[in-house]
Design a protein that fits this description.
Blueprint lengths: L2 H14 L4 E4 L8 H14 L4 E4 L2 H9 L8 E3 L19 H9 L6 E9 L11 H18 L3 E8 L14 E7 L4 E7 L7 E8 L3 E3 L9 H22 L7 H20 L3 E2 L10
Helix pairs in contact: 5-7
Length: 285
């Protein structure tokens, strides 16, 4: 949430008595006078805020470590999207929905491998090495579960030479190898300082065929490609609330994606494949 939106929310609270929630993404500039001023303003406004929402565990830690809010006032709600309903508005062959329909048709045979590429032109100054896993790779993690209709049970992370475009101390790019319950292997390249633009690719390899996302034009950033999809998603979410029957991703989807991302963080630190741990007592739905 921008400072202007945050201030508008506080005015709404003062006039109407409505609660204020602050949904935060990394936005503070690099250390310096400007950061100190903005951080002071954010801390002051935070005292009038009812609840904070972070989109990853790493962002919650950032909020707490910056003394903006205590951990008990920060909830983590992971980004989620129904990628069949809210796919980009381009050729139907380019959407992941078409990929799942191709898989469900049986023409490809059983899935064996999935190759994913996630590239951004540049990260924000507040981006960390862990956030390549907890804020970027989580989109592919969520899509893998949706596409293959099964859980990811193990993950390993490999790191090579870091790009000179990356901020100091940030390990970028990173390569993830995911293993699903049935044994499908998924490799995910995450490169958030690629320089040339926003570029997402995916290829599914089955026993009898291959399905690729049709090439999409490289864009400035993710907003050029997904702006319409995000608006459609928000309209459907509001409509579901009005009907009393929300649809789309569930809390389980967010929990499962976060669990895989946290296992990836453990793997990056241990150098080994790490098992994904989730609560056995919780069931999807």
């Amino acid at each position: 949430m921008t400072f202007i939106c945050f201030r508008a929310s506080l005015m709404s609270m003062c006039i109407c008595g409505s609660p204020v929630f602050h949904i935060r993404r990394p936005s503070l500039p690099e250390p310096g006078p400007r950061r100190a001023v903005l951080l002071g303003i954010e801390r002051a406004l935070a005292r009038r805020t009812d609840r904070f929402i972070a989109v990853s565990a790493a962002q919650k830690r950032e909020i707490v470590s910056a003394a903006i809010a205590p951990p008990e006032r920060v909830a983590v709600i992971h980004n989620g999207v129904d990628v069949e309903r809210y796919a980009p508005r381009d050729d139907a062959g380019a959407t992941r929905g078409a990929m799942r329909r191709a898989l469900d048709s049986g023409d490809l045979g059983a899935p064996l491998l999935l190759h994913c590429r996630h590239r951004n032109a540049a990260s924000t100054p507040a981006f960390t090495s862990d956030m390549l896993l907890t804020s970027s790779a989580t989109h592919e993690i969520d899509i893998v579960r949706w596409l293959l209709r099964e859980e990811i049970v193990a993950v390993s992370v490999r790191t090579g030479r870091a790009s000179r475009r990356a901020p100091a101390g940030v390990v970028d790019p990173r390569l993830l190898l995911l293993r699903t319950a049935s044994g499908v292997l998924v490799d995910v390249e995450v490169f958030v300082n690629a320089g040339y633009g926003y570029d997402v690719r995916c290829e599914l390899v089955g026993e009898r065929g291959v399905h690729r996302l049709s090439p999409a034009p490289v864009s400035r950033d993710w907003r050029d490609r997904f702006a319409v999809a995000y608006r459609d998603q928000l309209r459907a979410w509001v409509g579901g609330l009005r009907r009393g029957a929300p649809d789309g991703p569930t809390a389980w989807d967010g929990y499962a994606a976060t669990s895989v991302a946290l296992a990836a963080v453990r793997s990056a630190r241990s150098g080994r494949e790490e098992a994904v741990t989730m609560a056995d007592a919780v069931t999807p739905g």
